[in-house]
Amino acid sequence: MLSMSTWLKNRLPGLLFLLFALVSCDSSDTVPVQKVDSQDRLTEIELEQQQKQELRPAHNTFRFGFDLRASPQEDTAQYLPFLSYLEHATGYRFKLCFTSKNSSVVEELGQHKIQFAAMGVVSFLQAQSRYGAISLVRGVNHMGRAEYQSVLVVAPNSRIRNINDVKGQRVAFGSRNSTQGHLIPRIMLMDNGISLNDLRAYAYTGSHQNCAEAVVSGKYDVCGMQDQLAKKLAAQGQVKIIYTSAYYPSSGIVADNSVPADVISRVKQALLDFDPQAKDSQGLYHWDRTEMPQGFVDARPSDYVVLRQWSNRLGFLKENHSLEPAP
Q1: Does pTM surpass 0.70?
Q2: What is 59-145+250-322's CATH superfamily?
């Protein structure tokens, strides 16, 4: 019998096609086409209520979004078995939802197109400040800590040896709203007296993997990225780590505040009970490469105080932050 990981590898291309076709957050094919009398017009209030009704998930079926981490293929293969666990543990149905290039997980959550999402801290803080999103749990790393770090990496043969050498260089970040791929690297630079104006150039590459590839290819001199992938690449001799940040609260699972309280409670308990290294490991795909390899712990408001302060200082919580053009 094929293992779940082998099954997913063999069928991933077709699986992705089906997922994009059937579970896109922006898909309009779930909305029935109706014949409407041109004289029969809805009031603004009625139109808003109808739109909310159309976005409401089917009974006991919830859509799950995610911040891109590695690649769409890898992330998909990791989340699908995880959602199967949630279905078994809660009795609800979950659909993995892809976010279009013209939107964001934050916006999808605020518009009720998704009800749950795997999010970094920046995305959560934006969703909370704009839409009242609720953080349920935070991921536990390989060391049993619900925290993570970011690092600055360069090419193995680079003359850049420490963070002081970064001034005047070309720096790549991950997604604009990434905690490990943008906010924490910015904190590292600011703590060492380096602002964006001190850089020769900078760009947002969209993911940690793309950021690392920008350095490996020579397009950029420095990449700010998550620690686990960086350590793996460093062990392979592809990059060199020159600076490591302090620890900050890890990514987790967030809920739309319109989800019923009893549903949130059941899902949260299932997340806290999730044991990916023992009883729930069967069928998982490369879960050890995620930011929550040892499961989850409860999320508290106090966890986010420091990063909320930095987010405000650096403009991450501005309404138009994610819409600003990259330089």
Answers
A1: yes
A2: Periplasmic binding protein-like II (3.40.190.10)
